[in-house]
Amino acid sequence: MRSSRRRPWLVPALLCALAVLAARPTDAAEEDGGTGSGISAQVAQLYEDAARATRRYEDGRREAEAQRARAKRLEGLLDRERREIAVLHEDLGRMARAQYRSGGGLPLAAHLVLADDPEELMRGRRAVRQAELAVDNAVGRSRRAQDRLAADEARARAAWQELERRNAELAALKKDIERRLEAARVRLQGQAEASVTAGSCRGATRLDQPETGFTDSWVAPVETYVLSAGFGSGGARWVNRHTGQDFAVPVGTPVRAVGAGRVVRVSCGGAFGIEIVVRHANGYYTQYAHLAAVAVDQGERVSPGQWIGQSGNTGNSTGPHLHFEVRVTPQLGSAVDPVSWLARRGVPL
């Protein structure tokens, strides 16, 4: 897990880096001439940029909250010091009043002449003086502490305000990335629909694979999602019962191979629109349907978590989503419940 500590120079550098990343996909698309490959890569890159900006924005927000908490703790320490000073002042006032009532206005020589026991008088005077010095020292220490705490408070407020400013810049950059991402999604879906109408796929778009570092043999087909129609559910959209699990995700969301296997089908057209079917070593097949683009070719081997395509809204689909299916054969009609199938392999949805 990443550390929550951040060095001050990291955020300005991050802003510059994100600005370069945000500009890069558009340049690539222009060089590509607006082909399907260019827009697919642009959408994938924009997804990565938006996720990176979001993570940095949230890190900044957490750091700002930590700064504010530190300032509040400093204010609490300051209040405690003030209360202690007030108690010391009250004690000093009582001592002064007691001394005045016992003849504190007379000079020391007169006290010595009038005292029944001059030695006892001197001991009392020394005790009073020591108490006065103790109070004076305490007051001095408290004032110095108060000055330090006030300076710390000022620094904490300044740091918090700077973090808020940087967060605002990150939020603006993230909003711009999301705006461009939405425009790219529309173009990608349009190209996907044209491919489905023609019944011919454009071919694989080779996407830059993320550094996942998966250690598990099985993963979910998408990283962030909302489950929608489930296995076996009924509805007017299906002739019989629903044969898979739907993941509600925006157009262009990277779709992952759930496990190692070989691509046995990449097709366009029909009820599933653009689809990919992967055969796994255990004899099961997984299907990824209603895609907007594919990133693999038929016959290609894939690994767990590898991006094999991008979600869309092609074929018999009423909204952007991924239709994920698990079968015992590559053909329709042999589906099993994908949720329980993944759960048995350590992937709860």
Description:
The protein has 349 residues and is an alpha+beta fold. It is 52% helix and 14% strand. The chain is built from five helices and ten strands, in the order ααααββββββββββα. The chain has helices spanning 10-32, 36-101, 108-114, 118-198, 338-343, and strands spanning 226-227, 245-248, 254-256, 261-267, 274-280, 285-294, 301-302, 307-311, 322-327, 335-336. Strands 1, 2, 3, 4, 5, 6, 7, 8, 9 and 10 form a ten-stranded antiparallel beta sheet that branches. β5 (274-280) and β6 (285-294) form a beta hairpin. The model is unreliable at 1-36 (pLDDT under 50).
Protein traits:
349 residues, alpha+beta, 5 helices, disordered N terminus
Our estimate of the beta-strand percent is: 5-15%
Q: Main sheet?
A: 10 strands, antiparallel
Low-confidence stretches: 1-36
Output mean pLDDT. Answer: 75
> How would you name the oligomeric state of the polypeptide chains in this document?
single chain
- Assign the structural class, choosing from mainly alpha, mainly beta, alpha/beta, alpha+beta, or little secondary structure: alpha+beta
Termini, distance in Å? 22 Å
Q: What is the CA-based Rg, rounded? A: 36 Å
The helicity comes to: 40-55%
